Amino acid sequence: MNEHASTAAPAGRAPTVADVLALPVLAAGQPQVVTGLTRLDRPVRWVHITELTDPASFLKGGELVLTTGMPLPDDAAGVRRYVDELTEVGAAALVIELVRRYHRPPDALVRACRARGLPLVTLARDVNFLEVTQVVHALILGNQADAMRRTQRIHEAFTALTLRGAGPEDVVRAAAEMSGRTVVLENLVHQALICEPSGSTVREALTGWERRSRATEPGDRTEVGGPEGWLTAPVSYQGERWGRLAMLPADGTDFEPEHRTVLERTAMALTVARLIHATPWERTAHRNALRDLVEQRHHSPEDARARCAALGLPTEGGVFLAVLVDLGPGGDGAEPETRLHRELGSAGVPALVGVLSPGRLGVLLALRPDRPWRPVAERLGRTVLGLVPAATVGAGSEVADLADTARSFREAARVLEATPPGQPLPADRSFHEPPDIDLRRLLYALREDTRVQDYTERRLGRLIDHDTRHGTDLLTTLGHYLDAAGNKTTAARRGGLSRETMYQRLRAIERLLDTDLESGERRTELHVALTALRVLRAD
Fold this sequence. Notes:
Elements: H1 17-21, H2 24-27, E1 31-35, E2 46-49, E3 63-67, H3 76-89, E4 93-97, H4 107-116, E5 120-123, H5 129-163, H6 168-179, E6 183-187, E7 192-196, H7 202-206, H8 209-214, E8 223-225, E9 230-237, E10 240-247, H9 257-276, H10 281-294, H11 301-310, E11 319-326, H12 334-346, E12 351-357, E13 360-367, H13 373-387, E14 392-395, H14 405-417, H15 439-445, H16 450-470, H17 474-483, H18 488-495, H19 499-513, H20 520-538
Parallel strand pairs: 2-3, 3-4, 4-5
Antiparallel strand pairs: 1-5, 6-7, 6-10, 8-9, 9-10, 11-13, 11-14, 12-13
Helix pairs in contact: 3-4, 5-6, 5-9, 6-9, 12-13, 15-20, 16-20, 17-18, 17-19, 18-19
């Protein structure tokens, strides 16, 4: 069998008429396709040798019919009837040997086969029909056995995923890997929540997703449909349709039965996963998209745009603003996340909202260029503070391209890093933004940097040690002097000291620190160090 089947069909699918004609056992007969050249991709389910005038009564469809031509009727009407019966029962093709009765195919047979679209193949040399049936049947049965084994492996793989409580991303990824096709999970409003590309990019898979998806009508079963020929399967939750899986075609090749099995088992596994993983998958999709934007994990800006657009976020002709929310230690982002989704939706503001890490929410606003962002950020901030009064809201800067949103998120993160707990909000504002970061807040953000700590110690260490050993308070005096911008009179008044005492203390400070307090540069250095010390001690 192996020798004859060397050019067999790919394992797992039934051989086509073209596959069978290429087998050495038939190729030896010098086959020539007379009609139906474009239909040689028909699957061959079996081979049937017949010398009957009514062979159709013994067929079930999909057979390659072999004949010497001996039983063919002599009249054109009889030939047409013969071909009609083969066509109606679904025969894959008719192969006639031109050795015994005919040396060229009868015109009536050619006309009838051409009229009914039945492939007609002639053999110029004698072929052992029994050997043909043995070879082709062995090939078919072998492929069926292979297909059954692969189907069993598919079932086992998805059963294992279900037993270990795999999430939706793992399930869809497994489907793409097993099928070698791109698989997309969408909800009822045609938002692509999970996309696992195979042999293509996210951009190629998701560009224009909603429009393309709506062109493919939803069905109640696994089926191929729509202008692009998607293989789709419904996904249910608690007895109601929740969404749909779409497997995209590749390189113009047809879907095989195994692809249907993979998609159906994927849908079943997702139904179980939805019961196990309580977080709504739309929310998970937003979280994943935000994290990829923040961490710049997309393969390309085009992929990022396609993915966000498939989630319903406008990606062209607008501006984007990143907002981060720090909920404080132990803060639970689930309720604020839900409220912000609802609040922004009611305001008609497209956005991605999701938990980025424990206690931290991320929001990406997509705004029209003519819509000011501050009122939206203000509404967002008030909503958060109404739920979590101790929360801190930080905004980045507007960016015109989705690819630049990582920069806006970095700016918002720096705002949060530079905002100590309890930091008063600016007047009439519920959020902080980059211009709010002054020297003290900058040093607060850098307080764990050993270079800042070392700088502070080198500038003020000797003064602090002197105060500790002698019980003096020269550091406080220096603080009054620096805060008064070098005005000794003001510094003395603030410290409750006489001018002479102030002068004496300043001279002592200059001696201990080996510096000149009349120098503006030296005062600036000391003021920065003292501000850093205050931040470190207040932390």
